Amino acid sequence: MGASEAGCLRVSGVDAGYDGAAVLRGVNAVFAAGRLTVVIGPNGAGKSTLSRVLAGVLRPKRGEVSLEGVSLWGMARGEVAARAAYVPQRSEVSEPMTAAEVVSLGTYASGRDEEAVRRSMERTGVWEMRAEMYWRLSVGQQQRVTLARALAQLDAGAKRGVGSQFVIADEPASAQDPKQVMLVMGCLREESRRGRGVVVVLHDLTLAARYADDAVVVSGGGKVGEVGLSEQVLSETTLGRVFGVTFRRVEFDDDSQKGVVIVSAEGGTTRDGA
Prior knowledge:
With about 270 residues, this protein is of the alpha/beta class. The protein has helices at about 45-55, 75-85, 100-105, 115-125, 140-160, 180-195, 205-210, 230-235, 235-245; strands at about 10-20, 20-30, 35-40, 60-65, 70, 85, 165-170, 195-200, 215-220, 225-230, 245-255, 260-265, 270-274. The strands form 3 sheets. It has a 6-stranded mixed β-sheet with strand order 6-7-8-3-9-10, with helices on both faces. Strand 7, helix 6 and strand 8 form a beta-alpha-beta unit. Helix 2 crosses helix 5 (about 140-160) and helix 4 (about 115-125) crosses helix 5 (about 140-160). The longest helix has 20 residues, at about 140-160.
């Protein structure tokens, strides 16, 4: 592993799609451990497809996905599971299982780990519902259980002494109320501060501005456009070009908090502190 690949999850010249239809075309991007990177772009641009490719869930039709210089598709599946955990928008469970049993599924590849299960459920605020049947939970609660499963998966994998780890989450807070949005995004930010790479697909641009270190734009045609520091990528000019509407980026600093509001001319506003 070269020094330039340390802590890097890289996609190089990736084409990917479904049933013969291309969604991503010639995508190149690098995601770093210890950073929270948001992926933004219009509906249908390929953000979810990119998240599945990064996690090793969807194999590219062309190109390469590598973790610290090693192809994900050249690794044993158990090693991939120990190093890259995927949080889909919705997670279906075919068998009747409790919330704790669903979370424990994440630890099987590295050996059942009850400590990791409990710790991850506490961090995501779902430990008190551990005995509840998963299918009875609200969509928002299911999302947090799914996030807990991913964190338990990485915690169990870390005990094997693997290299850099990544959480790849596709709209993990889309069904959360405002308090739980802060819990979920705060949890993901804490993961990045612990040294893990975190990649999050988001539609809420103010939320992206509040939590992201870096940002990647997936634009029309399945191409990756701007890549860089979030405050540079989430600019009025770039957002206007990507989404086709006018934006204003408003920074505030009052007695209680400071942060950014991103306002679209055609819609309302969302204000988040930092």
